[in-house]
Amino acid sequence: MLQKALVLLLVVASIAGFTSCGTTANHYVYATLPAANQIIAYREDPNSGVLTQIAGSPYTVGDGAVSLALHPSGKFLYAANPGQNENDISLFTIASNGDLTEVFPRTSVAPNGSQPNLLRIDSAGAFLYVANTNSQNISVFSIASSNGALTPVAGPPVFLGATPLNMQLTPSGNFLFVSIPSQTSGTILSFSVNSGVLTLVSGINARGLNLDGLAIDPSGTYLYSANFGSNSISIFKIGTTTSPGALTEVSGSPLTSGYTAPVALILDPKGQFLYVANQGSNNVAAYSINSTTALPNILTTSTTTGAFATETSPSFLVSDPSGKYLYVGNQGSSAGIQAFSVSSGNLTAFSTYGVGNTPSSIVVLGK
Hints:
The chain is built from no helices and 33 strands. With 367 residues, it is mostly beta strands. Strands 1, 2, 3, 4, 5 and 33 form a 6-stranded mixed sheet that branches.
């Protein structure tokens, strides 16, 4: 089985929705290439979505680098290195032209953590959350605003009891959700967050297998999961006053997608559309979101199937800061990054960029 997506969406910049006005601001795209121990970097033309590889790219990173996280300031980039000779986090500074410079030494997750595979940063840029595959726990680091340096938060890592598949923070940073597998179905654990300290709120049986994709709507009201093993999508309401952070599955969930192996999903900046990468069907399905029920409805305004063909094995999705372009990471024989323009929820493919090795995650920086 191909390696599944590790990152769904990490965008640094003000996201104002779908706009058509031109801009001269530079955007930069970074992707991990684990087999080559590299990060490849591109400049994105914000008016066309076209990518141009940055001189000096790809950059060398730690062994098996699989996941990236951008600091909200746009000054720092972090990479998780789970390789046997690493087991650490790389920190890069980002120049005004998008060029990366690594800051040594790398920050180890040992002795309590092993094989860091997922990274998330809160919207304030104060804390980095690291999901460790082998040790089945989460490490937390505080981030120095001056130089991006990482310092472990006091206390032991939070033990999950199973391998973390994905995790997402609410926009407020008050809650963290982690999907883990179980024998009969997947489980999503809810944690409250206070100054980087995680406290378990509850867990919910998601009635789906292999919850590889997680996404939260812009308002922080609903959580969506892509259930790889059961070809379905689950939708949950996030508790507020009565049960803060607890999840309640909405009526009509899970939704059978009709496609094979949904592995990643993403909502547009306004929460009006949902895109799902179906690794087994080689497409991205597009849905409109019912504003009352939060349920996805297949988009039928431009295609009869509601899905848009991709290269083989689409595995992760990311939007550029304007929301005008969607990039799909493909992990099949034509491994690379495929670019789509976005209009009223519809996708139009316009270019594919070969990266030489299978990419595992991608982030977009707007400067």
